[in-house]
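Assemble and predict.
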Amino acid sequence: MARVILVTVPSSEADHLAETLVRERLAACVSVLSGTESHYRWEGRLQRETECQLVIKTADAMVEAVTARVHEIHSYDVPELLVLPVESGSEAYLAWIDDAVSGAGMESTQEVIRTLADAAERKPEPEAEPTPVSPAAHARVGEQRIVLLGPPGAGKSSIARRLADRYGLARLATRELLAEAAKREDKSALEIRDQIAHGRLVSDERATQLVRADLEREPGGRVFDGYPRTAAQAEALDSFAPVDTVFYLNAPEEVLLERLTSHLVCDCGADYGPARPPKHPGLCDACGYKLYRREDDRPENARTRLAEYREKTRPLLFHYRDRLHPIDASASPAEVFASISAILEGKG
Ligand code: AMP
């Protein structure tokens, strides 16, 4: 069941309140109707004020959390607040409202309130300081083109970030290039969004075109995260930027599925999983906003991604057999990274 909540607020607070509710995924959508004339009696005198009316669309289970948040932020002692059921609307529309507010997999109001209120510190295990990299190794590895192959959930992105930090390598993540291309308002952007959301690979031409343009813009060393993913992509890459080293990150399927379905992300780019939980459950360490689950990490889409990997990407292990280093990716990110850097620096 969906609900509409109407609240009257001072004009100066309307945008902030609307943005907060949407950002924290307490509401699917908030419309701000400005210019509502209010007449009221306050301290014995008749008052007149121009206020705003917020129309907040949310799921039934979120009403309590929204009300609590409005009371918290709002400067009025007793905000005027009316909750109405949404009785019309297609099933898809009502499901959209439900979905939009339960992105982090937190269906019940109680759970949301607990998450927001319970700021109990959960300290992740401190990581051992890595030994400094020698200038020679930094220069040598920083010039390489390194491919990270492996199923979704193997931790390629986090390893790619560490490699970029340690060796000054530029990171090339096709997911990010595609996400940028998907922002446009044309037919191909729509197609990309749909393919990504359902866990299917986008066309080889599109992925290769983006990779090629990125390499032309800035030549030099690269760590490839998510490319190549098919035989056609590997052959294309061989033709314009041959690869030096390939790491094959693998883990048992149960580990991958558990990681994918507990993976939470923030709009600021930070991401969290079993090995790196946020300090406050459900909230981003970097910016404090509410975390949510990516559409393609939903169990049914995660399974499609694994199937796509098995059918189209795994055969690349043979293609790269002469430069392939298998790595056990079920270990912690720090351990996986230690094995990879030892190999790159000639200590493995
Ligand atoms: P990732 O986070 O690397 O698993 O990528 C997420 C999604 O982006 C994939 O499930 C595909 O839909 C799309 N994608 C990323 N890289 C490629 C690629 N090289 N070729 C085709 N599709 C890709």
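Residues 152, 174-175, 178, 195-196, 199-202, 207, 226-227, 229, 233, 296, 305 surround adenosine monophosphate (CB under 6 Å).
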